[in-house]
Amino acid sequence: MRGFEDKWFKLTEDGFLEYYEIKPSFISVDTDVPANQIPSYISGFGMKEGGLFGRRWERRYFVLSDYGFQYYTSENLASLAPDNDDCTFRVITNSGETHILRSSQLMDRQKWIDAILETQKRVNEEMRPFGGKPKVRGEWALGKTTSTKEDARVSSNKFSKAVGDKPGNLEWSEIVATNQTKAEIVEPEDTIAYTKQTCLCVAAIDFGSSDSGCAFSLRSAYDLNPLNIQTEPLGDKGSATRKSPTIVLMTPAGQFAAFGDIAQQQYEELALDEKDKEWFYFRRFKMQLYTKKGLDKNMMLEDINGREMKASDVFACCIEYIKNKVFKRAEEAVRGLKEEQVHWMITVPAIWNESARQFMREAAAKAGINQELLTLVLEPEAAAVYCKYVEINRNKTGEVAHLEVFKPGSQFLIVDLGGGTVDITCNEVTETKQLLEIYHASGGPWGGNMINKRIWKLIRSIFGNTFFDQYMKEHTYAQLELLKAIEEGKMKIRPGAKGVFKLPFEMSDNTNITSTAGEILPDKIYINPENISVVFESSIKQVCSHLLKVLARDETRNVKALLLVGGYASCEMLKETIKTRFDEYDIICPLIPEMIVLKGAVIMGHESRPIIGRLARFHYGLAVPSGLKMIQKMETPHVRTEFNNELNFLPLIVKGTPIRIGEEVAQYSFIVTSEELTDIQIGILTCEDDAAPSSIAENNCTQIGQIEAKIPALCKLTEVRIIVSCDETDFKVTAVIEELGHRFSARCLFLH
């Protein structure tokens, strides 16, 4: 951009300006020169001091005329600009269509500027500079109106709609860039871009495998008392201190009908009227995000009758219902509260992989939650944060005391015993009372639902498999009642005691059935202690074995306490067994363990950084994409490690190393070898081995996703730097074009 030679620009439909060294063919020239693209920063490009291709450049002034997009170094545009009769404002699209912009009114002409700037803003949203929302500011003036008439093709696209005039006698307007115009697009003074730290309210959704709940607190209330948290029941029967079952009822047309207890009640009524087979009834479906291999956006869920629906639709409608429920309650507490003033927290298991977490993010977006106002919360961490603030019963003396385990330097295990998964994390309290993970999250699918399935199977065998299956098929209502009875009954069973479960009324007629496993009475079934012990054995054994394995690590040798949270922690059989087997530790059991994660998530929404670091569960690395070469890892500003083999495993994070929240993880510099390359795709891989792999061809390397960065095609041998950081529960990636100094946000995609 030196000198005063003519440059030829074309505004493309994707919001870029293409520039040409000589007059291109679409302006009646035979020679068509391949275009280089630069970002269409119409409002600021060329009008402020900056750098281009490493060269410093001064303020430039632009005129869009019949002869192209011309620039000048002098501010006296009146003497340099073409005569009005020669000036027209036209936009040429990728396909070569010419759109003539005209209006005799200043306000109408302003619409054209707004339309162009809106296009630019859309592109900026796709390639947002890392760290914030782009602000569009421009210095534009409108030239005088002329009366030149000319035939033109006027498209019915966004531009022609902006004015709304029909082709005919055309009046042309030019746009001249000066430093004196007032046509700016800025945020109104009364508009605030709310962040996690400035939102007026924090709302949390604990979307569980068995049960779900929601809660919120106002920032003003939190400042006075962090435990001043309002829980909102999700059903008519639900208590504000309890959660509702994760059940959703959908109409035959696939529309949302009800959630939780209400959904179960309505479905029971449909079953009594024999209309249930036409409706969709989903329960305990969250676990499929953990168990499903190759999770993708098109994953289907199967309901209780075997009918399928797209999983993202089911999750989204549930989240939307809960979101609306809690927001309505918060709105009653704060008159005039807006959705953009609420920061949302959604809980996820710590052992979930990246694709499952991204699935929940996209479901939340589909439910209407702004991604800028959403944080995913790891369930055990939320529980730990909440327990810092409360007085809890200690297991040995029964005394109520402030938890000693949360003194700086102390270490503890959070054992989140949910319906689907058991999550175990080990944390240390820092001097600032923040939490630092000292052993990576682990666990497995050993939650309370595992017990439910085994009890169901045992009752089925007592009644006889053939009879039981046929009966449940014909009596949906009885099936629902028995499922509910099993969930409630299992929590009360103590070691050495019988299991007592309420039977649906219709099943009580079969009292003549005899079994060594149990006894059937008119309204209940009693299961013998030895059989109940077998039911719980597998789940409890796997939980305890895993705890022993974690506590045997060098990293956990200073752990003094185990905190049991989650709905399954209310199970007396499990709780008593853990207390007996781990009697050398303080076993801490909150009074209402199923609510701890939910309330902790609310508190985490108010705290700026409650968790300062985690440990990597795997080796993370990158795969070299085609079209790039000379890959270098930026160890320090002056030290680089070079990789030249396309099979190289480019180390990103080493297994077991600390990952500081909000800090940079790694930088890589790539050289673009093709000017046609505008979409960079870099594979993200993991490896569970103790030693990091050197090649992506090794057996234990698995690609879990990819980084996608959309950059303008500038020229060959362009250096692009990829910066990876960890933010809350997600990776954040920035692409930097070294020659321009421009930073673009890239995307990490873990769903196909």
From TrEMBL:
Keywords noted in UniProt: ATP-binding, Nucleotide-binding
PROSITE patterns in alphabetical order: PH_DOMAIN
Domain PH, residue spans: 1-121
InterPro entries per record: ATPase_NBD (IPR043129), Hsp_70_fam (IPR013126), PH-like_dom_sf (IPR011993), PH_domain (IPR001849)
Keyword Ribonucleoprotein belongs to the record: no
Record-linked SUPFAM superfamilies: Actin-like ATPase domain, PH domain-like
Gene3D superfamilies: 3.30.420.40, Actin, Chain A, domain 4 (3.90.640.10), Pleckstrin-homology domain (PH domain)/Phosphotyrosine-binding domain (PTB) (2.30.29.30)
Protein name listed in UniProt: PH domain-containing protein
PANTHER family: ALPHA KINASE/ELONGATION FACTOR 2 KINASE (PTHR14187), HEAT SHOCK 70 KDA PROTEIN 12A (PTHR14187:SF5)
Protein family according to the UniProt entry: Belongs to the heat shock protein 70 family.
GO terms, molecular function: ATP binding; ATP-dependent protein folding chaperone
Pfam families assigned: HSP70
Organism ancestry: Eukaryota, Metazoa, Spiralia, Lophotrochozoa, Mollusca
